[in-house]
Amino acid sequence: MARINLLPWREARREQRRRHFLLALAAAAAVALGALFAGDRIIDRAIDRQLARNNHVGAQITLLDQRIAKIGELKLHREQLVERMKIIQDLQGNRSTSARVFDQLARTLPDGVYFTDVRMSGQTLSITGAAESNHRVSDLMRNLDASAWFDAPSLTEVKAAGADNADQVNVFQLTVHQTRPAMGEGGQ
């Protein structure tokens, strides 16, 4: 005999397919939501790590800025110390120069001439004195010019002083530049 199925098998199959489809759709939605949640967590962690790195870099930059400022202060302090050392070395080097200048002034002083005032401004000496004659003043200027310690004597003023002819003296003012003799020259 022939079998006839009277059940609505097509509708049951359709219902089964629909359930499978909804189940697959729900699974896909769950996988998508899981992936979305996992991606969000991964991105949040990456952002947190980057913020931590940025904060660390910012802290290191602040530390380096402080060190740079301290280095600048140390450089300034060093320059001041070097400047002070240079001044001290110049003073030590010039200590004997004053004695040499006075020695050379005494050596260049001819007979019949004496100084009443010697002033030094920088490297220029201003000398005021008296001489028995103009010839003695000329000798003094020649001696100053010949000295290795002095250069460019310039006579500013010469005038006669004294009432009688026996005690007549010539008062003079001159300027001369102090120099340092080359090595080997004693200025003697």
Automatic annotation (TrEMBL):
Q: Know the name of this protein?
A: Type 4 fimbrial biogenesis protein PilN
According to the UniProt entry, the coiled-coil residues are none
Q: Could you tell me the superkingdom of the organism this chain comes from? A: Bacteria
- List the InterPro entries: Extracell_DNA_Util/SecSys_Comp (IPR052534), PilN (IPR007813)
The protein's matches in Pfam families, at most eight in alphabetical order, are given as: PilN
A single Gene Ontology biological process assigned to it is: type IV pilus assembly
